[in-house]
Amino acid sequence: MSRSIEARGRHGRNAAWHGAPGLAVAAACMTLVVGCASSTRWAAPRTRPDDRVSIPEPKPRAYDVAEDSFDKQAMMPLERRLDLSRQLRALAGRPKQAFNTDAFDEVADSAWFTNRNARHKLSGAEIERGPNTVDGPDTSTVWTVVRAKTEGVTPGFAIQDSRGDRYFIKFDPPGRPEMSSGADVVCTKLFWAAGFHVAEDYVTVFDPQRLRLGSKVKFTDKHGRTRPLVQADLDAILAGVERRADGRIRALASRSLPGKVLGPFSYDGTRRDDPNDLVPHEHRRELRGLRVMAAWLHHFDTKDGNSLDTWIDDHGRRYIRHYLLDFSSTLGSGSNHSIEPYIGHQNAVDPNDSFARLVTLGLHVEPWEKLRPAPWPALGYFESATFDPAGYEFYIPNPAFANCTGRDGFWGAKLVLSFTDEQIAAAVGTGQYSDPEAARALVKILIERRDKTGRTWLARVNPLDRFALAGSGDGLELQWTDLAVEHGFEAARATRYRCALFAGGKALQPSQVATEPRFARFPVGATQTPDQLELRIATARRDGGAWSPLVHVYLDRDPHAAAGWRLAGIERQD
Amino acid sequence: MRLTGLWFQRGVARIGLVCALGTTAAATARADFPAAAPGDSATAPRHRLRAHSPWETVVSLPGTVILLPFEVVLGGTKAVIGVLNRGHVSDRVLDVLVAADGSRALLPTYSARGGAGALYQQRNLLTRGSKFTLSATGGRLRRQLFEAQIERVRMASGRVTAGAGVRYQFLPDEPYFGAGFTSRESDKTNFANERTSANAGVALDVTRGLNASAGFGWAANNIRGGRRKSTPSTTAQFASLPGLRDLAQIVRIDAGLHRDTRDQRGRPTRGDEAMIGGAYARQTNGDDFGWVEAAAAYTRYIHLGYGRTLTLGTAGRAQWEAANRTVPFYDLLELGGRETLRGYQRGRFRDDETMRSTAEYRFPVQPDKLDAALFVDVGNTFSGDGAGFSGQQFHVGYGVGLRLWNTRGGGASVDAAWSREGWNFYVALN
Questions:
Q1: Do A47 and B63 touch (CB under 8 A)?
Q2: Given the DSSP bridges, would you call strands A211-220 and A143-149 parallel, antiparallel or unpaired?
Q3: Mean pLDDT across the stretch A373-393?
């Protein structure tokens, strides 16, 4: 409060130093190295080229889950600790921001992501439909088994239905009917609606008598050995599957993705044989922000192996599309079992947590240790009470998530908050839970986790969004939406906005405090006004409360715009 | 990984160039994002961005150098892991060693006494619920231990179970400090014990968790000079010890009651285990040895909540010499070592009466994988006259331990225990 808004630099270093003056030296060094790049005129981030242009056919990428796990759990933490530039950035409170955001800190539609619900609200029917283009496998006739496996976490097989469509069939674990199939389908809808590319997954109920072995079908056993499939293999897979009273089986049917399968994408680096892949994945906003969505839906197993690249033909353009796959380990489901309560609170191997427990002699009981499973087997330990959106730990560390900044989190939170209660209920409905109480409980938990996600990530930044410019001549008005107020996390009457107008780094007028989300009638008509204006806005939630980090809003003179000025972009501090 | 990308693809020359650029590097990095009108993605330049800007590369140089050896080692490990995983080596080995249903397993085993070796277990061999164990271990100084044992073979209505086993062991450096609670650590000697034994018994399920048992055993003991040269041989230091020179064949009959209400055997968190029993032993190839023995033990597992368990246990044993006979020194009751008094060496105290108590607090360190434990052991040996049975003369050991569990039935433990005689470390596998 004692610091004026004018004293804050564009990058808001004052906020970073707040309460940690000892870091000033390090920050000063950082400023010498980094800050000298500042210019008086703000420049919008360079627009990244469209990554959906035709490329030559790439080669499939080999992937090994054990190598990946070792890499992420042993090598990556060491590399990050010894990355001194990263440590300096952390010390100075200036993490590296995503590389592919636009002037308004958003991402363009791409081979990774398509802006959907956060930009244009989808109807309940659209959510229910999700990515689906058909109505699932045809269960009225024979299914021909074309492939089978017992390796991996979940045994299953691939079938071809009477329409010629291929699906991979997976089952719920014994004793927990509907758990993994319901979770998969619900999360498929939500991830799709958020904007990620996902497969078409369906809950299906089929008669095992209709299964027929195809000719020359390959079977991969748990040791990775491939041999011809025989009926006994199929019987063995089906032996552990729960059947309904009429003998039919509920399963998850995941439709084959279009295009040539190229293996999983990596959450760091780029794909060398993809000329479209220009941004290191760990610095892609969609993947950093995915952390927030994944935590919301308890999608703890976000390893490379749960993704897939395919070389598709999109109306004549042949490029790589990047999919998220396999959501059967979400919402309390561990695919072939109910997940343990610690999932989401610590990594599979977490030396830091283990050491802390060791030295505290186990006397500190973590809240998650007190969890009891939900009364509905399909939900396992899925709950909202111990959910910590920012502290959520993924089973295997994810390099993109580890780079998630406040801005990335804010972007991800906007995706999560874009889902209304009704949309969540519509998505849960597609899980086809037989117990309405279980479905209601799931909706309630998802809503509670959504709100926790919003409260957490919106508090990291100044959550003003959807800026608009009104007025003309010598008086303009900047309007915005305060997302924290819009979603009911903060009271509008207790919120105040402190706004200041700058040009070329100099204040044009004293800052003003407003109680409405607008900066009214600031003078811009004077001939000496430069070509670019900057508005700095901070928010306080109560009298005497601390001002939030700044949002910088930039206006460029534009004779073609109605008011003679246009919104050029924003820069959000975190 | 990143290091490879930095040093082997770009080359060191690039670093020099970057150094020359100095702080202008930051400006270069910034210039990577010049102003551009939104939406011109079709004309945007197509060059691949680097995760690290030049100045970051320079700043990170010391860390990169430190990282290099780790990258080599970890990179090699990763490659090996990849090869093993792609070949499904661990699955195949486990599949050979451990049946999917847990009915049979071939596991590595280790103990300080028996050495390292293999343990084969098969369940349901003759009847449902039976357990057959075959183990072979060996170690330094030609230490050997071979054992075959079958347990819980159901008979009659199923309430009666039977078991039998044979065992051969050659333990080359068994410690002996002298008998009695006043024995000194500095008096340590060692002897070799070659022992062949067999046993058989039956047990009756009285009620759920309680059974009564009776058994018969035979053992032939051949004592020789100890093979550990760093300590004197028992045969030289205690020449008149009973049982030291001649081969003694001893038969033994025993009976007892055993109650076990533990919730799980390997990692109990609740329940208790109680035992009371007696035995009579007598030499068959002479008239020197004969004694009666009684034992009682009780252990309580208290679940403190959230995976924390407190174990409280106490046990006492006593021997009485039969008329005109005595107890061979190697069959005296003993305290010390991993099973009894962890702060003291194995066999540290021997006498004809022992009493010990233990308290162990176990808590999870890594859920479902690793527990840690804090423990304190108290105990002593006594003579028949009760000498030594006073608070001041009890021996106390404190320690910490780690317990590693796995889902396929194996386990390992590491304990470090301290007493006034110093530290003792124990490693056990399966």
A1: no
A2: parallel
A3: 93
Distance CA B240, CA B231 (A): 18
DSSP one-letter string for B131-164: EEEEEEEEEGGGEEEEEEEEEEEEETTTTEEEEE
Token pair belonging to A141: 């006739």
Tell if the CB–CB gap between B23 and A33 is shorter than 8 Å.
yes
Of B36, B44, B51, the CB nearest to A44: B36
Quote the strand ranges of A338-437, DSSP E: none
- Closest CA of chain B from A263, distance in Å: 15
A232 touches chain B (CB under 8 A): no
* Least confidently predicted of A5-19, A54-68, A225-239: A5-19
Residue A286 contacts B, CB cutoff 8 Å: no
- Cβ atoms B189, B226 nearer than 8 A: yes
User: Which ranges constitute the DSSP H helices of A93-156?
Assistant: 124-129
pLDDT, residue A30, reads 47
How many other C-beta atoms lie within 10 A of the C-beta of residue A389? 22
Which residues on chain A are in Cβ contact (under 8 Å) with B44? 46-50
Nearest CA in chain A to B30: A37
Distance CA B31, CA B18 (A): 15
Per residue in A164-218, pLDDT (tens digit) is 999 999 999 888 889 999 999 999 999 999 999 999 999 999 999 999 988 888 8
Q: Report the b/e string of A195-213 with b at 16+ CB within 10 A.
A: bbbbbbbbbbebeeeebeb
Separation CA A206–CA A239 (nearest Å)? 15
pLDDT value at position B328?
A: 93
Residue A514 is encoded by which pair of tokens? 């407003």
Q: Which chain A residues contact residue B82 at CB under 8 A?
A: 64, 66-67
Residue B17 token pair? 């160039």
The pTM of the full predicted model, rounded to 2 decimals, is: 0.82
Of A46, A48, A84, the CB nearest to B59: A84
Size of interface A-B (CB pairs under 8 A): 171
Distance, in Å, from the CA atom of B430 to the CA atom of B119, rounded to the nearest integer, reads: 8
Query: What is the ipTM, given to two decimal places?
Result: 0.80
Task: Report the DSSP pairing between strands B395-405 and B370-382.
Answer: antiparallel
**Helix pair angle (A179-194, A421-429), 10° resolution:** 140
d(CA A460, CA A497): 16
Taking an 8 Å cut-off on Cβ atoms, the answer to whether A79 and B2 are in contact is yes
Q: Å from B38 to nearest chain A CA?
A: 6
Tell me how close the Cα of A403 comes to any Cα of chain B, in angstroms. Answer: 11
Average pLDDT of B325-350?
92
Bridge partner list, B45: none
Residue B211, C-beta contacts closer than 8 angstroms, at least 6 positions apart: B203, B204, B205, B257, B258
Cross-chain Cβ contact B372/A358 below 8 Å: yes
pLDDT in tens, A426-449: 999 999 999 999 999 999 999 999
Percentage of residues of chain B with pLDDT beyond 70: 86
Asked if A268 and A401 touch (Cβ cutoff 8 Å), the reply is no
Q: What are phi and psi of B101, to 5 degrees?
A: -90, 5
CB contact under 8 A, A361 and B37: no
User: pLDDT digit string (tens) for A112-143?
Assistant: 999 999 999 999 999 999 999 999 999 999 99
In angstroms, the CA B245 to CA B227 distance is 16
Helix or strand holding residue B110 (H, E): strand B104-111
Q: Spell out the residues 6+ positions from residue A23 whose beta carbon is closer than 8 angstroms to its own.
A: A16, A17, A91, A92, A93
pLDDT in tens, B373-407: 999 999 988 876 666 566 567 899 999 999 988 75
Beta carbons within 8 Å of B80's beta carbon, 6+ residues apart: none
Tokens (6 digits) for B108: 């590595």
The reply to whether residue A85 touches residue B59, judged by beta carbons under 8 angstroms, is yes
Find out whether B353 and B395 touch, Cβ atoms under 8 Å. no
What tokens appear for B405 in the block? 């569990």
